[in-house]
Amino acid sequence: MGAGWKDRTVLDLACPDLRVGLYYDGGTHAGAAQKTKDFVQIQELKDIGWDAVRADATLLRRERPRFISQTSKAVARAVAAGR
């Protein structure tokens, strides 16, 4: 993933050239401890120049256009940054 990464997570889908990744959060991500771990992982990814988009079943089922927009914006930011 890059210098400084601690091998703490695996993205569900990643584009290393753009440094954009997608996570799908299943039921195991509902607890408070896991939410804290997820937050830390996203911050660590940001610290090394990655942009991560998270989704769960509710978001994909009820707000799919929002997820697509968030993903498109992450890709656009990467392209604008010259990645």
UniProtKB/TrEMBL annotation:
Domain of life (superkingdom): Bacteria
Name by which UniProt lists this protein: DUF559 domain-containing protein
Highest classification ranks of the organism: Bacteria, Bacillati, Actinomycetota, Actinomycetes, Mycobacteriales
